[in-house]
Amino acid sequence: MQEQPSSPARAVGVGPWDINLAGIGIALPDKRLHNNDLTAWMDTSDEWIFERTGIRERRLGGTTSGLSIEAARAALADAQVDASTIDQVILATTSPDYMLPGTAPAVAHELGLTCGAFDLQAACSGWVYGLVVANGLIQQGMNRILVIGAETLERMTDYHDRGTGILFGNGAGAAIVDRDTTGAGRLLSWDLGSNGKHIHILYSEHGGKMKMDGREVFRQAVTVMQESATASLERAGLTVDDIDLVIPHQANVRIVEAAWKRIGFSMEKTAMVLEHTGNTSAASIPLALHDALANDRIAKGDKVLFLGFGAGMTWASAIVEWNGTSG
Ligand code: ACO
Fold this sequence. Notes:
Strand order of the largest sheet: 1-9-14-13-12
CATH class of the largest domain: Alpha Beta
CATH architecture of the largest domain: 3-Layer(aba) Sandwich
Bound molecules: acetyl coenzyme *A
Radius of gyration: 19 Å
Distance between the termini: 60 Å
Mean pLDDT: 96
Strand content: 25-35%
Number of domains: 2
Helix content: 25-40%
């Protein structure tokens, strides 16, 4: 029998690829739900919630398409580019406006676009999945992709449930992801994963509210954050010390601290915004990225690690060498 040639070793997730996050924008609805507000109908306290999660308040209101459009316009303005130059819209969301159709076409329409537009459902890992997909499309010839993470989790959260009602809120973040022609901006590596064995530790049925085994989510999250961060670091040929800023999914600061103990990252090199946003699922990483940029925490040449995990379970990490030139 003829011997089959062995398949070549696949260097999946090993870059670099020339891309640039040229503009970032966010949207948060005005209405705030503070921990103290929850105590009006729930046996809890601001101290308990803040101590266990790092969250003080979350935002309510808006629609997923409305928040997406606002964040997208802000990202376009930040990059100083016109919407008409976008080749593709990717909207990562767990809470689309409708079951059918997806929300991305409505967002594209409002921006005056008829380019490809699709929703991406990978729960809280969604925006990082979107970034990796955008890179793939750029390697196939596209030049500019709008990657949005937007959620109205309010619609699937029971604010009378002590386990989930303390965590989730609404918000959106968007990035203009460009082909980089300067050689400065690069995606160095990425890692995507899932384990459907854990569907039932965090899920919502059609039209229902989220159900969660909080302790198990906590345990699994710490494990997959460590594994995915390590995979992306190894693929990029980097160590923990080479990373200038980590932007993790903003689920619970205690999860991040527990994962960092294992990996070796420090909170000083970590972007966190969940105190004032709660857990906004796919929106949380671009919200934290925007905050880090607004506070001059990222400079050209910095290596930034995005690290997401969420229901599914899914996880996703990516390391970007920052260019960030606008216009
Ligand atoms: N306020 C006050 N007390 C509370 C509350 C509350 N909101 N919730 C639970 N308690 C009490 C319980 O009654 C229990 O009391 P007892 O010891 O007297 O019986 C005690 O606190 C411990 O209860 P647990 O349910 O075990 O609480 P835990 O310590 O696990 O904390 C929490 C709950 C904060 C939800 C935690 O499990 C968690 O953060 N898990 C991760 C959740 C998460 O991040 N999910 C999203 C990630 S994925 C994604 O983003 C989609």
